[in-house]
Amino acid sequence: MMPPELGRMALGWAAFLVLGAGVLLLTLTPGTPEFVVTLFTLFLGLFLGLIVVAGVVWTRRRTKREDGQQ
Fold this sequence. Notes:
The chain is mainly α. It has two helices and no strands.
């Protein structure tokens, strides 16, 4: 089970990566190495956010299922 603090921290990092990379992408020239690294960072942040949201949904469903069986 994932502690809520860990989920909040990971979601904060994901938001930081997505917002930071999104703003930087608006200022960089496509095709440059900086653009590619920033695009990779954006996808990494989105992936991290997806993992956190999936973990929260999975944990809540598991908890509801366990509470219903008792």
